[in-house]
Amino acid sequence: MPTLTVEGFPPVEVESGKRLVLAIEQDAKVDVLHACGGNARCTTCRVEFIDGEPTRMTAAEKSVLNARGLSGVRLSCQILCDHDMSVRAISRLEGSGRPDPGPTPEETITPPAVWV
Ligand code: FES
Question: Three-class SS of residue 59?
């Protein structure tokens, strides 16, 4: 099982292939935002990678990052935990002023992953 480390929190083992956004929230117990429900639209699930950044990316992630001019961040809703990863949770419910983190993302990547 891959190890996920969220900076400032204890490392956790996560089910291989789990969506990173869900692993951060459910396993690492960190209040990451996912305002669009994991559909590569809002970018509130963004994280910075410290180690283990995946080389592949979904077309949806690439498109929204490019459209918003974002670099140095990845969308945790578009990433699967298939190897050890260390990330910084830079977009959290705490301090956001939002009432909740957003709808719970589905277990599989949405929209259906097209890898680029
Ligand atoms: S882009 Fe909205 S939850 Fe990932």
Answer: helix
21-72: per-residue pLDDT in tens?
Answer: 999 999 999 999 999 999 999 999 999 999 999 999 999 999 999 999 999 9
What residues form DSSP beta bridges with 6?
A: 87
Report residues whose beta carbon is within 6 angstroms of any ligand 1 atom: 34-36, 38-45, 75, 77
* Interior angle at CA 35, CA 57 and CA 55, nearest 5: 10
Pairing outcome for strands 85-89 and 3-6: parallel
Question: What is the distance in A from the centroid of ligand 1 to the CA of 85?
Answer: 19
Interstrand relation of 3-6 and 12-13 (parallel, antiparallel or unpaired)? antiparallel
